[in-house]
Design a protein that fits this description.
Helix content: 40-55%
Radius of gyration: 26 Å
Number of helices: 12
Distance between the termini: 104 Å
């Protein structure tokens, strides 16, 4: 009997301990259950008072010194992190790989497709062959150098033509969630340039399809990415470069090319934010919603940020002793007239890719005109 009573008392004590440990406490720490990227359960809810951790790998070939990546961090990553934490039972654990550490510059689209990262920021200038529609403004030089106007134009184009975004999913195993624009492209050179005639015989560096902007000028094009710009100018591989202004300021390109020409070359749709489809399909629905909503807001934030820093960049260039020249409208028209009809070539290439090239290109110009931006040249769009 004594043994039975002791056993009963022991069982009662054990039950009491189990009951107490099952009770929540306001001071208890949040429990985290890690869900590796692409392995989330979109139907399972986290236990009350706990947070499930979702690991997402994000990367790009460009570093955080570039404004579109700065905006990606300051707006996209920040807001996704905060909203997921406050609005859901999940937390995001970011694994960041900018500057080409996982997906190299020009290989972001493939890297997201292959699952090397879960979220990628693709630099579009290197994807003209695979994303001809998304890259089309690169073949429309001197169209507009105002980031805010270009951002509004891009929003209207993407809303009217869903093929701008659907291609990522149908062809490249990724979900499109956001687009950014470049800062105004500037012309940095080792000698002063005030006109089209001044560039004859120069070796000019540019990335990808941007080399088409100097065809017919008498200059020699040199394939040059942002990452190579400083060294190529320093070693005389090229005597000038056409690159986004702010990135070159951060790279101190003015040290080796102290002349800056504001030529109204362009602001273009520059970087796309996409999510690997396998990862996307495994994410909880509420997390997908937040990614979509924050991705949609990225363009406005990034365009405003770029607009603000451009004026600061010009002041900094002056402070560093850089000579700044603004190319006159007359010289812009002369430069555009010297080019082959690359807009007509664009229309034909879009037609060949299965798009209505003339309609889409004309629509872009019409939206710009509705914002007061005149065409630099009467390009042959219809034929």
């Amino acid at each position: 009997m004594k043994k039975n009573r002791l056993f009963a008392l022991g069982m009662a004590a054990a039950v009491a301990v189990m009951s107490m440990t099952g009770c929540g406490s306001k001071n208890s720490q949040t429990k985290e259950t890690e869900i590796p990227a692409g392995q989330g359960d979109s139907t399972a809810a986290a236990p009350s008072g706990s947070k499930e951790k979702i690991t997402l790998r994000i990367g790009s070939g460009h570093s955080e010194s570039n404004p579109w990546i700065t905006a990606l961090e300051d707006y996209f990553v920040k807001n996704v992190t905060e909203r997921v934490s406050t609005e859901t039972n999940y937390e995001i654990d970011w694994v960041k790989s900018y500057g080409g550490s996982v997906i190299s510059l020009g290989n972001e689209l493939q890297g997201v497709q292959d699952g090397l990262v879960d979220i990628g920021c693709t630099i579009l200038v290197f994807e003209a062959s695979r994303l001809p529609l998304q890259d089309m403004v690169y073949s429309m030089p001197f169209s507009c150098s105002d980031p805010l106007i270009v951002a509004e134009t891009v929003k209207q184009m993407y809303a009217e033509y869903p093929e701008f975004t659907s291609t990522y999913e149908t062809d490249y195993n990724q979900k499109f969630i956001g687009i950014g624009v470049s800062d105004p492209y500037g012309f940095y050179s080792t000698k002063e340039v005030k006109s089209l005639d001044d560039v004859k015989g120069m070796k000019i560096g540019a990335a990808g399809i941007n080399l088409s902007w100097i065809e017919g000028s008498g200059a020699v094009g040199v394939q040059t990415s942002l990452n190579d710009t400083y060294q190529n100018l320093q070693t005389n591989v090229c005597q000038a470069t056409i690159q986004p202004t702010h990135s070159c300021v951060n790279l101190k390109v003015y040290e080796v090319a102290p002349y800056y020409l504001d030529a109204n070359f362009n602001v273009v749709p520059f970087n796309a934010i996409t999510v690997n489809m396998d990862t996307w399909n495994d994410l909880p629905e509420e997390v997908r919603t937040i990614l979509t909503e924050v991705g949609e807001g990225y363009l406005d934030y990034e365009a405003n940020y770029i607009n603000e820093i451009h004026e600061q960049d010009l002041k900094e260039l002056e402070a560093k002793g850089c000579t700044i020249v603004t190319l006159s409208r007359e010289e812009q028209e002369k430069w555009a007239a010297s080019l082959p009809d690359i807009v007509n070539g664009l229309v034909k290439s879009l037609d060949s890719a299965g798009y209505n090239g003339a309609e889409i290109v004309e629509k872009y110009y019409q939206i710009l005109e509705s914002h007061g931006v005149e065409r630099i040249r009467d390009w042959n769009i219809g034929n």
